[in-house]
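Handout, section B. The chain below has 553 residues.
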Amino acid sequence: MVLSKMLLLKKVINLRYVVFLTFLLLQNNLIAKDYYVHPEKGNDSNIGTSKGKAFKTLKTISKINLLPGDRVLLASGQTYKNGLIFINKNGTVNKPIIVTTVVWNDHEIFKPAIIDFQDNLNGILIENSSFFNISHIQLTANGFNKPSKNTEMLCGILINNTQAKLMQNIVIENIIIDNVYYEHFGYERGKDEVKTANGTQKYGWGIRVINLTNHKIDNITIKNCTISNVSHTGIKLTGTNKNISNVDIKENAIKKTGGPGIQMSGVKSVQVRNNLVSHSGSQDDSRKWGRGSGLWTWGSSHVLIEKNKFLYANGPGDSAGAHIDFNCDNIVLQYNLSAYNAGGFCEILGNNYNCSYRYNISINDGHRVKGVDGAFQEGKIFWLSGYQGNKKVRKGPVNSYFYNNTIYVNDSIISKIAIDNSSKGILIANNIFYLEGGAKAVLGDQYKPDELSGDLAENVFFKNNLFIDKNNWPEDIGIIDIEPIIGNPEFTNKGGINIEDYLPTNLTLVKNKGIKIPLLQDDKIGLIPTLQLERDILGNMIKGNPSLGAIEP
């Protein structure tokens, strides 16, 4: 009897011990791990979970089954070859997978780890994966070492959905991408390549998000990144049927891209805030495309573009500060500074609905002259186009709101204006047109010029704009301001490059002389979130009637 009790007790103790060990093992597997990589001090036969037992190459990291909360830690200031590949790896909301740089020794000065991916198509690939945070890494690839007919592009970072699953919650921050070219130095593109819609050859890109599936990529943040000298676009979102959504692109610096600075297609609910985009469409390297607006949208919905600087866009076509390509709705540009962009300031192409430029400042935009230096489009300060594709009948934008902008152009430039007569619903009010060189009407010329006819654009509200003289709006454009204001706003420093330079000092002429912006006839939607803003471009409160232009004096 006693022996039986002892055997039973022993079995119970053994069972509890097994349960306890199983619990420990499960807990062990749930504990996030750090994986260290050092290209000089590491060894791929190590376990990688400490600096003393670090891995050597990024290839080893790509093979690990990363779990929620795991961190991949690269050595500060070190250069790595190939790239990082994350396919079907997932963190969680509270435990994202983290990839970043750490100092190896306390006395080191922090420098981002460098990934030179000349032997790899991507510096970092995130495919069919969610809940990632990538930060403090520098990426470069000055020519691809393994070209083939099947590869078309190099990407600093590629976020790609190829499966029937949701991808979500990816943060890209404090990343440096510089010198990304598919071709090696010395390669020269054909002179007609820049005339194609988006380029037909092989290029290097900064950050790309691609979704060609029926499922979504949702909640992407790209912030505090620096992207320069890529042969095509700095940041590009490519979706279908609005399947890329809730994207926040903020506080990035994008410079000297061969194509556009930022471009998005087939997306919904995107905010682009506080970015600097300079010298898009750069031609300073023969491998660059050489054409591009600071930003442009296509086939997209509900995009807010605010408080950015778009400077020095270059190219023989398009290359505005920021433009709205066709098939978009509810694209709002507000509180931006646009300066010295060859293609112009306001460009809204065909089949767009309820889009707006408001409370922006434009300085010497639209200086390009058709036929000079290979230009096949005129630069324009204001352009509403009927273009919606080469094979479709012209159809102008519907319900375009253009108000409280300040536009300054010096006397060396004749400002060009084009309005397709198929446009329906145009509001132009409370703007300051300070065009020292005068203005003239031109044909819109997106691949083929708009046709002249006796018809006029429908449903026009053109009222209460300030012109420095009557030559600041061409009479033959087809529409005119029915209550223009003529005078000099007396800017504090006309010709300057800062927003504050365009503070009007002629208070009698400008202060509270604006009108409340009405809904256009037959428009039941207006603008998102509202037609009436509470603040101007500098954050000043708008009290009573708004003033003229972008700044409340």
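Note. DSSP finds three helices and 40 strands in the chain. Compare this with the example in section A.
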